[in-house]
């Protein structure tokens, strides 16, 4: 086998390695917590906290209303029992009853408003919980697939690296070093020759270059410097 063909095969392996390493890097970046899942989970936490706070407000209002009702009942019993004969005291008592009724009405209106908020927030928690459950199931499925893909890529990379070692061992170290230098400079160190044209720079080759390339000798394009491979 000519050295140009060996180098071309080495380059093909290197390109496969680069492609699979890039794919592995992309998969690795996708592994881990999903930002969308985190965002929805935080929304759910906030809604649950809001629901708990509304619950505390609701219980506080209920206790306050119960206290007002107790005071109002006592005041009305005293007002209508006939035990109070003093007109001024009766007037003050009536004002107290009216004030307690007004306060009870205000608290009951506030309680109704909080009940509405509790209902809406409860529905919101249910909706977000359902959304989170769907997202988490999708995320777990994706993570499993990514893990599977990652293991497959690791196996492919291992095989390619072994193949590269075998190929490199068959080529003169100085030629391999030249290949690496050209690869650093031009990304592709070996260019195919098709219809007398170097596919690296797309410039026609001289008859001498074509003859040397056909013989299998190590030949570099006089225009771009790439190693020429004539299939």
Model description:
With 231 residues, the protein is mainly alpha-helical. The relative contact order is 0.14. The mean pLDDT is 93. Helix 1 runs antiparallel to helix 3 (87-169) and helix 2 (35-80) packs antiparallel against helix 3 (87-169). The longest helix is centred in the middle third of the chain and has 83 residues, at 87-169. It has helices at 3-30, 35-80, 87-169, 173-186, 207-215, and strands at residues 190-194, 197-198, 203-204, 227-229. It starts with a helix and ends with a strand. The chain has a 4-stranded mixed beta sheet.
Task: Please provide a brief summary of the model.
The protein is mostly helical and 231 residues long. It is 78% helix and 5% strand. The chain has a four-stranded mixed beta sheet.
């Amino acid at each position: 086998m000519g050295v140009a063909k060996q180098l071309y095969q080495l380059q093909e392996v290197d390109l496969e390695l680069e492609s699979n390493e890039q794919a592995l890097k992309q998969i690795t970046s996708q592994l881990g917590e999903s930002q969308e899942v985190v965002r929805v989970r935080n929304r759910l936490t906030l809604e649950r906290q809001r629901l708990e706070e509304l619950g505390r407000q609701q219980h506080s209002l209920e206790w306050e209303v119960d206290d007002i009702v107790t005071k109002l009942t006592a005041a009305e019993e005293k007002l209508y029992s006939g035990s109070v004969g003093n007109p001024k005291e009766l007037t003050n008592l009536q004002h107290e009853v009216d004030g307690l009724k007004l306060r009870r009405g205000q608290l009951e209106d506030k309680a109704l408003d909080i009940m509405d908020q509790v209902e809406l927030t409860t529905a919101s928690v249910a909706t977000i919980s359902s959304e989170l459950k769907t997202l988490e199931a999708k995320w777990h499925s994706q993570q499993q697939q990514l893990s599977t893909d990652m293991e497959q890529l690791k196996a492919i990379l291992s095989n390619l690296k072994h193949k590269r070692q075998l190929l490199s061992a068959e080529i003169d170290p100085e030629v391999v070093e030249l290949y690496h230098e050209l690869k650093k400079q031009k990304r592709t160190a070996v260019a195919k020759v098709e219809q007398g044209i170097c596919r690296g720079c797309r410039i026609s080759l001289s008859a001498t270059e074509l003859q040397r390339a056909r013989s299998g000798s190590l030949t570099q394009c006089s225009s771009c410097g790439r190693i020429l491979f004539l299939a």
